[in-house]
Each structure stands twice: as structure tokens, then as C-alpha cells.
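Design review, sub-item: ligand-bound model
Attendees: FS, YL, KQ
YL presented the inputs for the glutathione complex:
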Amino acid sequence: MKLFYSATSPFVRKVVACAITRGLDSRIERMTTDPHSSPGGLLAANPLSKVPCLLTEDGVALYDSPLICEYLDSVGDAPPLFPDHGAARWQALRNQALADGIMEAAVLARMESARPEEAARTTAIARQKAAVQRGIEALEGSPPPVGTPDIGGITVACALGYLDFRFAGDKWRDHTPRLAHWFETFSRLDGIAQTAPPG
Ligand SMILES: N[C@@H](CCC(=O)N[C@@H](CS)C(=O)NCC(=O)O)C(=O)O
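KQ shared the predicted structure:
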């Protein structure tokens, strides 16, 4: 398998964390890609020009991260990260959706911050940061399970790791002690420990 890869993308981190957790990392060749420059190789696989994008061993291109992670769950015989039924399944998928939303808002806020200062930009950043804040507060109320890692916990850890990487000054831990403790514990998982963003 081949993965269009960026070391700073929280969505890519999520995919690699799933691959490591399920013992598949050695089967995936990472192809470092800048999606913002729309390189031809990426466009041929993903018309949206986004990473992550996975080329399967059958040559099928898969995007975006929820689909790629679900595909990886179908490869090999390690314990699944997507619980197959019941409350555990819906909790894991809901946590994945919430953490994907936090990552999307944080990435947008980061990109807006790189543009020249103006009122519209400031409003847009505040709106995205408010979504991040509400997401964190929801997770503080019920952090993902720690015992058996699932797709929800992996995505939440990647979202929190991205906040530490890009918004260290925002100090999300100050008002979320349960979530901070959960993150410290969950971060010992190989797939999270081995995929920390650069720097
Ligand atoms: N929903 C997508 C989001 C992927 C995404 O936004 N990736 C960013 C990097 S963090 C990207 O490739 N951006 C390029 C662009 O928007 O042009 C997923 O879950 O994979």
C-alpha cells in the first residue's frame, strides 16, 4: 500500500496511528506530499487534492481518513478498531466524528491565521476556535475508553495532539482535567507515541 503523507497533518497521523496499532505500518510506503501545491500524482488519485490518500495493494485510491481507517480495519487479523455493533460502535464513531470536526476547525483556524490581518479573518478564526472549545468540553464530559483502543480514541488523541502542535498557547488542559488525564494515558499507545508531529 502507498500513502500520500504529510508529517504535520492530523488526519494523516490518525491513519498511521491505526496502521501501527494494527501492525500494518511496514506494509505502507509513505509518499511525502504537499497537498496545497496540487501535485499531479496526488490529483490522479484524489481529485480533492487532500492527504491522507491511500493506494491499496489492488491499486484502488481511498480517501478520506474515516474511509481509509475502516479499510485498514479490514486488512489482517489484529483486533478491530471499529467495534462492530452495539453502544461501543456508536460511541466510537461519534467520537471519531467529533474529533474529525475539531481537527477540521483547528486546521481552518491555522490557515486563516496565516492570512493578512483583517476583521473577516478574525471572525472566522474565532468561530472555528469556538467549535474546537465546544468539542473539547463535550469530550471532557465523557472521554473515550482507555482499555481497548478504538477509532474514536485514536482520532481524539490526534485532534488533541494537533492543538498542542499548532495552538500550544491556548492551554486547552486548563479547564479539562479529565480529558487531560485521558490524553496522557492514551498517548502511551504505540500508534500515538510513534506519530507525534515534528518539533
Ligand atoms: N476530511 C478529510 C480532511 C483531510 C484534510 O483536510 N487534509 C488537509 C491536510 S491536514 C489537506 O490535504 N489540505 C489540502 C487542501 O485543503 O487543499 C480527511 O478526514 O481525510
